[in-house]
Design the sequence.
């Protein structure tokens, strides 16, 4: 049975640099002796990797998790007008609210260039339900979606 963490500050403070938080994606082989795959060293790096993987996953792609991800590819081959941008933004917001509720999304920027759609997300990691974010501490994740 799962144990619910009742502490006020449930998030890991990355104080020990020897402890790895997750696996960095995409997978890569390391030559150093810390393990076979490259690992993310901080909680923030792990959250950024998780956001990238969530938004690069198409809905229905994961077995037993049909609602995981967003289907951005269905929008990429349509003319990029304001309605399509709003639909992509809504898909991103819904996915993050469902799968990563601790991520507080502050801003979404989209730039179309040639065969690519570049998306920049600005976010904070909320520390508690009553936490008020400071946009000066915001982190960013950059994603590129290609029309293939």
Sequence:
């Amino acid at each position: 049975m799962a144990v619910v963490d009742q502490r006020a500050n449930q998030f890991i403070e990355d104080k020990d640099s020897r402890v790895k938080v997750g696996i960095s994606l995409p997978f890569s082989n390391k030559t150093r002796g810390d393990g076979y795959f490259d690992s993310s060293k901080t909680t923030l790096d792990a959250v950024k990797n998780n956001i990238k993987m969530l938004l690069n996953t198409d809905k229905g792609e994961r077995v037993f998790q049909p609602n995981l991800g967003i289907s951005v590819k269905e929008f990429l081959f349509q003319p990029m007008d304001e309605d399509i941008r709003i639909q992509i933004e809504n898909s991103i917001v819904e996915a993050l609210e469902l799968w990563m509720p601790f991520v507080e999304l502050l801003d979404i920027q989209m730039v179309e260039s040639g065969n690519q759609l570049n998306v920049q997300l600005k976010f904070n990691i909320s520390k508690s339900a009553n936490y008020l974010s400071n946009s000066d501490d915001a982190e960013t994740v950059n994603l590129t979606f290609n029309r293939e």
